[in-house]
């Protein structure tokens, strides 16, 4: 019986602002290696023991998920689209219901898309122990061996070993994130483990426990599955039914109530990478304890985390400081205040700042665009279209556009006429004309767009036809 990996990719990673934002959260970034966190997570579940993954994600991220899985060579994934974020219990219920349609006794391996694991061999050994207990009807979580009195994680108190399941222990209780004194007691006592948020259970067991402890979650998500539409690898949950589901975590909904909770103690080099301090802990340090990524220069500094996404960033005489330079925002703070980034993001939201949720570069199913200059009645963007992709057939009521091809080849459909543009050629699109941009080539198409008009918002787009179902 193969294991079905279920990757929960609905988080926004607020504490890693300004890198992670709602429109492009941390699971889509390479944080500790060359691959993104989503790709690393999916890559841990490849081989003959595993079925293709089920990925549960925000509907707005569907093409990011599909493209990153394709780039990593992961085929056959089913991408389950949440019309609204409702926390982990509805996401788990949707995945269990989807898998149970074909195989109720299939073993699900539930995991977040954004955790780092440095010892995959130890992970798979722990997974093997968990699967034995899961097939016997348990819901097994992975308990990480604490290495410090961490106050940012929940804890699990482990009990006696389960009969017939070597290396798997009963869960005595789950403990909320403790204060520093209690965390120190947990570390010294040796009975408490960090709650990793990974679970292993059969689809049938999960659904039975949801029915027993969170029936409203199961009822509403069952209705959302019944109303789902399927489009290629995407399964779109019924919006009205899913929106009515209680917003609750699987920990609160099931794990803290069930009698079937078990834990596999494991030491696998795990981190949820939930803060810049956690990334400093996980990073490769220089002789002064600094972690640097990107174009960074350091003078007389120690214990710092410095990351730049492109702009040269220099630091002098700093100690235990975080500096993160994004394309449109800079974060500077003491490393021990890493848990407070959410306060700043909330403040930016209240102020209506776009930077709270969006990057300057905005990703679309066909590629991306990036704002370069904005002034009174005009703005300039850089647009990149992936090979073989095309924008929607559209028109605007308030702006005209001028496109200049930087490199690649473009086919422009303008008011029924097809025009081919090559490098350094341009075209004018008057206000109200029906137009579309397409990349017929084998390399990315890059162009500069100049917009002129009384209103330049992204909502001034009338889609007449769209390959990606957005009209």
UniProtKB/TrEMBL annotation:
Domain of life: Bacteria
Enzyme class: transferase
Domain MannoseP isomerase/GMP-like beta-helix: 299-348
One matching Pfam family: MannoseP_isomer
SUPFAM superfamilies named in the record: Nucleotide-diphospho-sugar transferases (SSF53448), RmlC-like cupins (SSF51182)
Keywords tagged on the record: GTP-binding, Isomerase, Nucleotide-binding, Nucleotidyltransferase, Transferase
EC number: 2.7.7.13
InterPro entries to which the protein is assigned, alphabetical: GMPP_N, Man1P_GuaTrfase/Man6P_Isoase, Man6P_isomerase-2_C, ManC/GMP-like_b-helix, Mannose-6P_isomerase_type2, NTP_transferase_dom, Nucleotide-diphossugar_trans, RmlC-like_jellyroll
GO molecular function per UniProt: mannose-1-phosphate guanylyltransferase (GTP) activity; mannose-6-phosphate isomerase activity
Catalytic reaction list: alpha-D-mannose 1-phosphate + GTP + H(+) = GDP-alpha-D-mannose + diphosphate
Annotated Mannose-6-phosphate isomerase type II C-terminal domain residues: 352-466
Keyword Ribonucleoprotein: no
Residue span, Nucleotidyl transferase domain: 5-287
Family: Belongs to the mannose-6-phosphate isomerase type 2 family.
Protein name, entry field: mannose-1-phosphate guanylyltransferase
Record organism: Paeniroseomonas aquatica
């Amino acid at each position: 019986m193969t294991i079905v990996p279920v990757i929960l990719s609905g988080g926004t990673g607020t504490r890693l602002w300004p890198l992670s934002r709602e429109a492009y959260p941390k699971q889509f970034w390479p944080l500790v290696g060359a691959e993104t966190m989503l790709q690393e997570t999916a890559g841990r579940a490849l081989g003959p023991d595993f079925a293709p993954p089920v990925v549960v994600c925000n509907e707005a991220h569907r093409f990011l998920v599909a493209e990153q899985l394709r780039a990593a060579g992961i085929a056959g994934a089913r991408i389950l689209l949440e019309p609204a974020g409702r926390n982990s219990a509805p996401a788990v219920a949707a995945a269990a219901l989807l898998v149970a349609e074909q195989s109720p006794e299939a073993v699900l391996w539930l995991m977040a898309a954004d955790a780092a694991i440095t010892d995959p061999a130890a992970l798979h050994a722990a997974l093997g122990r968990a699967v034995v207990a899961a097939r016997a009807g348990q819901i097994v979580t992975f308990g990480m061996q604490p290495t410090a009195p961490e106050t940012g994680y929940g804890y699990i108190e482990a009990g006696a070993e389960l009969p017939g399941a070597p290396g798997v222990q009963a869960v005595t209780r789950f403990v909320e994130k403790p204060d520093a004194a209690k965390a120190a007691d947990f570390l010294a006592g040796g009975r408490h483990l960090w709650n990793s948020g990974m679970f292993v259970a059969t689809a049938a067991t999960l659904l039975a426990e949801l029915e027993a402890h969170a029936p409203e979650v199961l009822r509403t998500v069952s209705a959302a599955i019944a109303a789902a539409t399927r489009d290629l690898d995407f399964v779109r949950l019924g919006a009205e039914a899913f929106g009515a589901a209680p917003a609750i975590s699987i920990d609160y909904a099931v794990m803290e109530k069930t009698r079937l909770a078990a834990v596999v103690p494991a030491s696998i080099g795990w981190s949820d990478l939930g803060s810049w301090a956690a990334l400093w802990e996980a990073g490769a340090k220089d002789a002064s304890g600094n972690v640097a990524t990107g174009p960074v220069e350091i003078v007389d500094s120690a214990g710092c985390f410095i990351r730049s996404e492109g702009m040269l960033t220099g630091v002098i005489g700093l100690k235990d400081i975080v500096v993160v330079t994004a394309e449109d925002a800079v974060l500077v703070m003491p490393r021990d205040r890493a848990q407070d980034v959410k306060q700043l993001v909330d403040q930016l939201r209240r102020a209506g700042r776009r930077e709270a949720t969006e990057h300057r570069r905005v990703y679309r199913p066909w590629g991306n665009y990036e704002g370069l200059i904005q002034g009174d009645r005009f703005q300039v963007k850089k647009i990149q279209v992936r090979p073989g992709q095309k924008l929607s057939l559209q028109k605007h009521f308030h702006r005209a556009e001028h496109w200049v091809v930087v490199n690649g080849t473009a086919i422009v459909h303008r008011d029924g006429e097809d025009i081919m543009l090559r490098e350094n050629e341009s075209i004018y699109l008057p206000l109200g004309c029906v137009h579309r941009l397409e990349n017929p080539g084998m390399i990315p198409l890059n162009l500069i767009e100049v917009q002129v008009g009384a209103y330049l918002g992204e909502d001034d787009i009338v889609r007449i036809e769209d390959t990606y179902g957005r009209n």
